[in-house]
């Protein structure tokens, strides 16, 4: 295919000209050449290389590979694809090498064919599962395996998030990569608190799941001195244990040497509300995470005694709230803190976008001081 060869620093300028004049071809992208130049693909309507418009930039021929399929639907019979145009899945979620997809009743019979097409299009996927909805006490998804690349049907897999690795298992433990930004925010808050207290923190994540927040916190040198974490779901605590073991082996101090051992280092399969039944757990925590969105706010009263007294500590939680109850929910959090003899130093109550339209998914962050 004919290309215009231009100095790489002028690529954008020439791309703009070719697009405005409708001389560029969409069949392929810009090709980087060895000589500090780039090649812009041209279509048949572009004038020949003697035209003054090219400012003496030469034309060259580059062989272009035809573009392969770009979507899994390209691997399905065209007529069938057209017949069910409105019904095919429009999105899916990937956790590690497992792909999870909701399939409408109308195309359920084509489930295996859809999964095969997805395996063909996505070389890093091992297993495609249909999402049958949330089930049980721990609100995990019921998954139905549709097709596997290597015959294995296990859903335990490993993901990379913000640079750290985590074992997850979408059929037994809750995990959402959509909240990875929240982990970034949690890390930023923790660093701010560490800087204010001028020492590493003891953190508590009693609804830890597989431990994504710990992934962010333990990866930061000299941020955490100890942790109390857990989950009521035994499958979650199994993966949490594996993940913390791995994160621990990679911990470094600020000089890049071996980090000091964590103390406390408590991990339990237990109801979050049981931590505070034992008074030896009171007054130990600098940063408390509360992530049980349907119950975070009512659980606060029982959890607050875990925080250290007579110093600034931070409570960071997530809650699903009816649109109509936003103000009331905020007031309840304030009241619970006051009733636990806490003084609020800073407070935010922010919506996390992209969830249900009838309810709001909120993150609250309270900087507080509990008096003795
Ligand atoms: C929304 S998930 C959050 C998991 C994790 N923090 C994350 O961000 O991925 C809530 C977690 O709380 C656990 N859970 C539910 N009720 C609990 C309770 N009473 N005590 C401790 N954990 C509980 C669930 O098993 C689940 O792993």
Polypeptide structure, described:
By secondary structure, the protein is of the alpha/beta class. The protein has 3 domains: 2-61; 72-155, 2-Layer Sandwich (GMP Synthetase, Chain A, domain 3), CATH 3.30.300.110; 175-370, Rossmann fold (3-Layer(aba) Sandwich), CATH 3.40.50. The protein has 8 helices and 17 strands. The protein has helices at residues 11-20, 78-83, 111-121, 180-197, 212-218, 234-249, 296-303, 326-339, and strands spanning 2-7, 31-32, 37-41, 59-61, 93-95, 98-101, 127-135, 140-148, 157-161, 164-168, 201-205, 224-231, 265-269, 287-291, 312-322, 342-351, 359-370. The strands form 4 sheets. The protein has a 7-stranded mixed β-sheet with strand order 13-12-11-14-15-17-16, sandwiched between helices. It has a 4-stranded antiparallel β-sheet with strand order 2-3-1-4, covered by helices on one side. A 4-stranded mixed β-sheet has the order 5-6-7-8. Strand 2 and strand 3 (37-41) form a beta hairpin. Helix 4 packs across helix 5. The longest helix has 18 residues, at 180-197. The protein starts with a strand and ends with a strand. 32% of the residues are buried. The model has no long low-confidence stretch (mean pLDDT 95). S-adenosylmethionine is lined by residues 138, 174-175, 179, 206-209, 212-213, 231-233, 236, 271-272, 291-293.
